[in-house]
Write a structure and sequence with these properties.
56% of the residues lie in helices and 15% in strands. The protein has 601 residues and is α+β, with helices and mostly antiparallel strands.
Length: 601
């Protein structure tokens, strides 16, 4: 791949990554805006429900005002009093009224002035059968019962009071006569407390609350909770009249009990401000007289209730969304899902771009290494070619002894094999084939092999002015592959020669036997290898860069040497310190047959 093309492609990948990041940022912002819009939509829906509820309440109250009021009352001396139960009764016939007047006059005279209740009872009894008007007859019968009770005629009193109890709607002095008669029957045990409270409840709209309260105290054992609650509401209404006296004459006002009051002159009407039926189970609608002073919160909304468009609010509707938290949770869950998908897409894009960029960089590196390989292969081939030319020129002279000629021929054959190996390495790299198959093994005399390697390398060392030492080695055998061992050792010696010391360069080849292995060590006093580089020198194409060394090579020698060592079951290691040289050790494991053979020899 060309350098310019790689830069262009990397630039395109960078633009793709930047574009993906910008798109992800914009998508996340849009998702955030959608979440805010969703929350606002939920809020608007609650407000819309509150407004709709207020309209329904106002419409219901307006329709109720157009009809007959539910209940009415009168304002008397600044207090709330009972209104008339209906249209006044027609006047009684003149004859009945005159008879009733004479009976009353005679009874009062006898009963109070002269203190003769018995004579009053006779006067009342005389006129009672002749009175036909029910109202006058009930009034006179009540007096009969009262006077009879005073004279001890309990049977007559009970019968009279029962007649009065059976007739309703007759009020005298602001007190209903039926309730007064019923209180006497209740005290005598002739009437149950529950029946008396039931009659009080029926007559509550026609009687002042104080009168109802006084009668209710006569029946403490009866179930009068409903009547007491009504009396409490009446007290609340009276308090509202006293507190809002100046306002009631101008517009309807809602009380704390969510009732709407309206005054027309001295008459009062109140209407229920009942919450409208909910159109959805998720909302709760309440009606309050005054708006809450505290913050309603995000799950509530407030709307005014008006009975027409021109008047101020008479009450307030509070709409409460009971599923507000669940709806917001759904919005947040959807927001997180969208953001997660965008982030996942961004990560996938960036990771893919990173892998693509890494692949491009790797391909550029491999291409550069191949270029260096092709550039340096000629130099690498020169070493064995130079050795072959040197030995062939020596053989061409006439003064070469036959023994030397034979030795030179063997060295030339060795260099030819080395040349062929180098060519195979180059071809293997070109084919991307760096695998080494297991090599066949045989018994190899390591001593003889090391002497042969040393003899061929000594000529090259002397040519470059390098001191080369190789200790004589006695015969010692190991089961291995001689070609692989020779190739590994020659690679190590060639590296030591390339990276030799600038002054007094020394290279040593040692063979150290042990009971379980034979170690072939190549030592030098060169620049050494930094510790951070020692684990990478066995990688293909990797070469340690030195400022003082302009050494050209393929970077395949140590990689191939380790692969060959693995193929024959040997291990290749290195010990080195900067400026103190390096020591490469090839360890050939020995078997029991190898050690036994050495002892027999």
């Amino acid at each position: 791949m060309k350098r310019d093309g790689s830069k262009t492609l990397l630039g395109c990948l960078g633009l793709v990554a930047i574009g993906a990041a910008a798109l992800a940022w914009w998508s996340i912002r849009l998702a955030g805006r959608e979440l805010d819009d969703g929350e606002r939509r939920v809020r608007r829906s609650i407000e819309a429900e509150a407004v709709a509820g207020a309209r329904r309440v106002g419409g219901a109250v307006t329709a109720a005002m157009a009809r007959e009021p539910r209940a009415t009352a009168r304002i008397v001396d600044g207090r709330l009093g009972p209104a008339s139960a209906g249209p006044e009764a027609p006047p009684p016939p003149a004859a009945d009224y005159h008879r009733f007047a004479r009976a009353i006059a005679g009874g009062r005279a006898f009963e109070f002035a002269r203190n003769e209740p018995a004579r009053a009872l006779d006067a009342y009894a005389f006129y009672l059968p002749s009175i036909r008007d029910p109202a006058l007859r009930t009034r006179l019968r009540f007096r009969v019962g009262r006077v009879a009770a005073a004279t001890g005629r309990t049977d007559v009193a009970r019968e009279a009071f029962r007649g009065v109890w059976s007739t309703t709607g007759i009020v005298e002095g602001g007190v209903p006569l039926d309730l007064a008669a019923g209180s006497r029957l209740l005290r005598d045990g002739e009437l149950s407390a529950d029946a008396f409270v039931a009659r009080l409840t029926e007559r509550r709209d026609a009687v002042a609350p104080d009168v109802i309260d006084a009668f209710l105290s006569l029946a403490p054992d009866a179930n009068g909770d409903a009547l007491r609650a009504w009396l409490a509401s009446q007290r609340r209404l009276e308090h509202a009249f006293a507190r809002l006296a100046g306002v009631l004459g101008e517009r309807p006002v809602a009380t704390d009990g969510a009732d709407l009051l309206r005054i027309d002159g001295d008459r009062v009407a109140w209407f229920d401000l009942a919450p409208p039926p909910n159109e959805t189970d998720a909302l709760a609608i309440d009606v309050v007289a005054q708006p809450p002073a505290d913050d309603l919160g995000p799950d509530r909304a407030l709307a005014p209730v008006r009975i027409d468009r021109t008047r101020a609010p008479v009450a307030w509707v509070v709409a409460h969304d009971t599923r507000h938290a669940a709806r917001l949770a759904d919005l947040v869950r959807g927001h997180r899902t969208r953001v997660g998908l965008v982030v996942l897409l961004l990560v996938a894009t960036l990771v893919g771009t990173g892998f693509a960029g890494a692949a491009i960089v790797r391909e550029r590196r491999v291409a550069r290494l191949r270029e260096e390989l092709l550039t340096n292969v000629t130099h690498e081939l020169k070493t064995p070619i130079t050795s072959i030319r040197l030995f062939s020129e020596m053989l061409a002279t006439d003064d070469v002894a036959p023994a030397d000629a034979r030795r030179f021929g063997e060295l030339m054959a060795t260099e030819c094999r080395r040349l062929g190996t180098l060519v195979e390495d180059v071809l293997g790299v070109a084919r991307h084939d760096r695998t080494v198959a297991p090599a066949p093994r045989e018994s190899v005399d390591v001593g003889a092999l090391s002497e042969r390697i040393a003899e061929g390398f000594r000529v090259l060392a002397e040519r470059d002015g390098v001191r080369f030492d190789a200790d004589p080695v006695p015969p010692m055998h190991v089961t291995t592959n001689a070609a692989c061992v020779e190739r590994i050792v020659r690679n190590l010696l060639d590296n030591a020669l390339k990276y030799r010391a600038a002054r007094d360069a020394r290279i040593t080849l040692r063979v150290v036997p042990s009971p379980d292995a034979i170690e072939i060590a190549v030592e030098d006093n060169g620049p050494g290898i930094p510790s951070r580089e020692q684990r990478r020198i066995f990688e293909p194409f990797y070469r340690v860069r030195y400022d003082d060394y302009a050494v050209r090579g393929t970077g395949l020698g140590l990689s191939i040497s380790r692969a060959l060592g693995d193929a024959i079951g040997a291990t290749l290691s290195v010990e080195s310190r900067p400026d103190h040289g390096s020591r490469f050790v090839l360890r050939l494991p020995r078997t029991e047959d190898d050690t036994t053979g050495d002892r027999t020899r």
